[in-house]
Amino acid sequence: MHTNEAQLVALSVIGDIAPPTVKLSYRIQPVMGQPILLPSVGGISYNANLGDPAVGIAADHIEPGVSIRNSSDGANRALNSFACIGNRARVVTGEGKGMVGTVIGKHGGVEHVMIHFDNPAETLEKLVIGDRMQIKAYGTGLSLPDYPDVTVMNLDPAVLKSLVKPNTAGRLTVPVTHRIPPYLLGAGLGEETCYSGDADIQLFDEKAVSEYGLNTLRFGDIVAMEDMDHRYGRIYRKGWLSIGVISHSCSVQAGHGPGVTTILTGPANALEAMVHPEANLKAYLPQSI
To answer: What is the C-alpha separation between 235 and 23, in angstroms, rounded?
Structure first.
């Protein structure tokens, strides 16, 4: 599988560990109409990490691992646009200086990038809110000359090579844990770009959750979003397929749910998803997690 990797530029981007924030005193659970206050975006998630459940936890948009952002709007747009899943992030201040983590997702709206560290029970204790992390951003502009109809985004070339394989039918095959029907996608639809942010999976219909096994979603699961074209924003398009990584947890807010950061999109005659229960990002990063 040929890529244009030799043409890519590696560029530094930087962010600080972002504090948790709360916009409202509570959110309204839309089915029962109950007011609920739960842990939400930002900070250091000590027990919500790559491979852990993203559903069935007392959380609202919890981001796995460590959440970073830049206080400058322009610099934060660069951080969110250029950082790619699988890129290495180095701590450059504080007690954890020198520790290296891995980019595992992006979250739109709050505009955070999430970083995973090996042995989180030990390494996360060395970090504090405000510590800086520099990412060697590499992957923006990645393409597949032999598969021009497939668009790659938000993905380190090493992860692409580990994850995606050509098949004998002339398509690219990607392992996924779940297939998501288009009618379950909510917040994030209609955005102008998928090179940052995410789209949410709504989990308020019990029958649909059971049918598609969505109560087993984990942080880092690779999923297929059916009939979705994500080249220039997130739109419904019959016969297209978009692949993404679960990047934040479930939510009690209407229109929201587990977030998916897009990594591939293309027509079904060029891109194929094969269900595999262990298709989690942990298995495809350059180094074992």
So the answer is: 28
Helix (H) or strand (E) holding 121: helix 120-123
Q: Which structure tokens are listed for 62?
A: 């919890």
For residue 49, the 8-state DSSP code is -
Q: Rounded distance, CA 118 to CA 10, Å?
A: 23
Do 82 and 13 meet the contact criterion of CB atoms below 8 Å apart?
Answer: yes
**Residue 124 DSSP symbol:** G
Quote the number of domains for the chain: 2
At residue 95, the 3 state secondary structure works out as coil
201 falls within a domain: yes
Report if residue 10 sits inside a domain.
Answer: yes
CA contacts within 13 A on the Cβ side of 145: 6
Cβ atoms 89, 100 nearer than 8 A: yes
> What confidence tens digit (pLDDT) does each residue in 155-198 have?
999 999 999 999 988 899 999 999 999 999 999 998 899 999 99
Residues spanned by the domain of 30: 5-137
Q: Please identify which residue in the block is written with the tokens 């070339």.
A: 157
Torsions phi, psi of 261, nearest 5?
Answer: -90, 120
Asked whether residue 120 is domain-assigned, the answer is yes
- Dig out the tokens for 180 from the structure: 């998501």
Query: Quick one: 64 and 164 in the same domain?
Result: no
Q: Of the residues 111, 137, 163, which one is the last residue of a structural domain? A: 137
Question: Is position 85 within any domain?
Answer: yes
Residue 243 and residue 264 in contact, taking contact as beta carbons nearer than 8 Å: yes
Q: What is the pLDDT of residues 144-156, one digit of tens each?
A: 999 999 999 999 9
